Amino acid sequence: MKWVLRVILAVVIFVSVAIGGIALIPTETISRLATERLSASLARDVTLTGTVRPVRGELM
Q1: Residue 59 has what pLDDT?
Q2: What HEC string does the chain produce?
Q3: In angstroms, rounded to a whole number, what is the distance separating the alpha carbons of residues 35 and 46?
Q4: What's the rounded Cα separation, in Å, for the pair 33 and 22?
Q5: Among 13, 31, 33, 47, which residue's beta carbon has the most beta carbons within 10 A?
Q6: Average pLDDT, stretch 3-25?
Q7: Are 4 and 29 in contact (CB under 8 A)?
Q8: Contact present, 35 and 47 (Cβ < 8 Å)
Q9: In contact, 38 and 46? CB cutoff 8 Å
Q10: pLDDT higher than 70, residue 44
Q11: Do the beta carbons of residue 35 and residue 13 sit within 8 Å?
Q12: Higher pLDDT residue, 26 or 15?
């Protein structure tokens, strides 16, 4: 029983650290990566204008 709790605790800690690490990435880096990948996949120049900020989105 103790090992089950330890595994669950390890998973919770891992997920928390992963989410925290993602939250610490600067928005400029994310916007640069997004424009580079979009430009490459669309074979067109893509620019993001205005302020880039993280928001909680809803999936359709």
Answers
A1: 60
A2: CHHHHHHHHHHHHHHHHHHHHHHCCCHHHHHHHHHHHHHHHHCCCCCCCCCCCCCCCCCC
A3: 6
A4: 14
A5: 31
A6: 91
A7: no
A8: yes
A9: yes
A10: yes
A11: no
A12: 15
10 Å CB burial of residue 18 (0-12, 13-18, 19+) is: exposed
Q: Share the mean pLDDT of the chain.
A: 88
Q: The tokens of 2 are what?
A: 């103790």
Nearest to 54, CA basis, from 36, 31, 21 = 31
* Position 53, amino acid: R
Residue entry with tokens 């669309």: 42
**Residue 32 structure tokens:** 């640069």
> Residues near 48 by Cβ (< 8 Å), separated by ≥ 6?
31, 34, 35
